[in-house]
Design brief:
Chain A is of the alpha/beta class. Chain A has 12 helices and 5 strands. Helices cover 39% and strands 10% of the residues of chain A. Chain A is globular. The chains are: A alpha/beta (267), B alpha+beta (434). The complex binds iron/sulfur cluster (2 copies).
Chain lengths: 267, 434
Amino acid sequence: MPRKPRLAVFKFASCDGCQLSLLDAEDELLAICDRVEIAHFAEASSDLQPGPYDVALVEGSITTHEDAERIKRVRADSKFLMTIGACATAGGIQSLRNWGQIDEWVQSVYPSPDFIRTLATSTAIADHVLVDFALHGCPINHHQLVDILVALAEGRQPRVPSHSVCLDCKHRGTVCHVVARGIPCLGPVTQSGCGAICPAYDRGCYGCFGPSQPANTASLVSQFQSQGHSTEKLVPLLRSFNAAAPEFHHASEKLVILGTSSEGRRS
Amino acid sequence: MTSNDLIEVPILTRVEGEGGVTIRLRDGAIENVQLNIYEPPRLFEALLRGRPLEETPDITARICGICPVAYQMSSVHALEAALGIQITPKIRRLRRLLYCGEWIESHALHIHLLHAPDFFGAASGIALAQRFPDEIKRGLQLKKFGNRMLDVVGGRAIHPINVRVGGFHRLPNAQEMASLIPHFEWGVQAATEATRWVATFSFPDFEQPYEYVSLSHPDEYPMNEGEIVSSTGLKIPVTEYDQNFVEEHVAHSTALHAVRRKERTSYFLGPLARINHNRDRLSPSARSLADEVGLAADCRNPFKNIVARCLELVHAYEEALAILRDYDSSGIAHVDYEYREGSGCAATEAPRGILFHEYRVDQAGKIVSGRIIPPTSQNQRQIERDLLEHLTSRLQAGASRDELAIDCERLVRTYDPCISCSTHFLKVRWEECS
Ligand code: SF4
Ligand code: SF4
């Protein structure tokens, strides 16, 4: 039997939710530990082993100079680097700062802003180093994570479906909210993975799994506009957990340029 | 000051997020201890401004992947106060049910995978499973049913999608709720066994004259609602939080430390504080179990937080079971409301203690400003004080530096700090001052 792959988990600016997904795989957790060696996972173990690692799971986005350097070291130490979640894959909700004035933002939160050193942007891991695989979601789906770890342990290339949430709704038999209730739902342009839960709970998808490939976000947005939804409502819908993902970013910029929204001022 | 003796030991592990501790020595005695939190700030209060208020529960959930429900609960209650919304008794109960799910998953995780290993010198819960396979598997099952509850009521366990201002997007499906009942019957028993197991651990002898602070409600164990009470006699409505507590910004932290406003002293939040103030409102099984395992009425040993956490696990299972048995899917899922200018605040009991939110909203339904005070930044000063006291006495008793570094991590872990609510790559460091 080949050697067990050595797994490491690294955190950047994030909420810990994606790495917690691994511990949330309660039924599989102990079995996974038989198939991969957990070499570095600070949230779960005090036994922190040095690299090199076979697989690195990277959670979180880059928001400081130190982290921009640290991710390079992580890359150098890891054979296969995989981003987990919207923060690592697209910059996360904290990438909204990319549209704001960072100094003023820091001042609004901290009474002594001088103590705080942070970059004006929150960027995806792929903006800094080569990423071998990106797992979407805010948070990721732990079943997908487990499947990927098993594939890697068996030396297979990991794969996840790339269709949209919309198709999952059809499978679940959920009535379409765009058609039936005229609410704006990002399901048609959002990557599958969550099981289409929001529409099943009577609300529109807010795109937490990021854009699906290919996503014609612009045409969906024009449809929402023709249904009477304002730019003011649509811009924040596109600018949330995956605001900086290229497809959503372009669609929101286009709306701002063509529309009359006050939220789109680019600093 | 020179720092001629700097020992670095690995980062604080088995806590949520990453943190570290700096210990300064002078003439062989500990001069000062700092809990460092360098988590890159994510600036939630700033990014909320100008956003539709409806997004607040979804966005603030992303502050913490371990207690997203707490953020959702404090935010919706605060916004409902601002908008003058009265929720129905049914929605209120369902919110408690959802909160039970989060207490269960968070407590079961901390007890079994993060904290228990400390009592046996194990590196992780997974390593501990070699020695206690049944106990750890039971712990994982206990955690799992908390998550299943969050799936059913909230749509998913991490960052639930069903919570909204005014109630829920949709009421949970009655059949799915009924299917949880046998698991929760098992859970009350299993959590009871887990508590008995944990109560046999050997706890370091360490007590402090804490000021415990928690919510308190006349009819129920505190979760979503109540007055703020303290062990020194404070009893105030949540709206008077600012008159009694204040946040300070210290250089070694990207989190703000909260202290008592007048005295500038630290205070203690979390399971032990809650049990000490509300023991008679625990569920029947949890209450008799507290007596059985001999938890002192006014326990001042922070290492016993794990026992309090176990008792709350029993409570959450038992209360959830009662709500599940009673459930039918009639009634409205949410109360409608109109926008108005205003502000409102709320505090709820996150697994780690009081989580305070305050928002100002405008006529158009946008957030004007928000303020969030998480439990870990309120406990931070207390953790530092405890470290100073505990490490000093351990040093006097002849503990080596390596042992002290381990003690340091163990003490921090008793608080189950959630550093993601703010975090970064920290080391335990020694600095010797001559
Ligand atoms: S992607 Fe979402 S769930 Fe994952 S770490 Fe970022 S905020 Fe948390
Ligand atoms: S439906 Fe959309 S917003 Fe909801 S969980 Fe799925 S991807 Fe995320």
